[in-house]
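Fig. S4 source data, part A: sequence.
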Amino acid sequence: MMPSILKRLANHVPHHGFPELLPRMLALASLAVSSQMLTLSRFRHGRILLHLVAMLGDRCIRFHVAGVVRELPWVAEAPTLILQARTRLMSALVH
């Protein structure tokens, strides 16, 4: 049943100039997506979401993980806090 529906849709050529309208429709859809992405990028959690979605699309994992870490200050500060804790522990054990 599904292939016949798809075949009918593929063979259907509307009479109102759909091939001429398609580039405009795609441009408007692209603007709508760009607008949504711009709105998301204004907020920290939106930027994280955009990095996660982009990571799935372009597979640049290292770049996008670094972007997520930049958006989460407590993750970015973790290595410094661990080093400080280690230094304090070592000085407490020595004295």
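Fig. S4 source data, part B ends here. Residues 3 and 9 are 10 Å apart (CA to CA).
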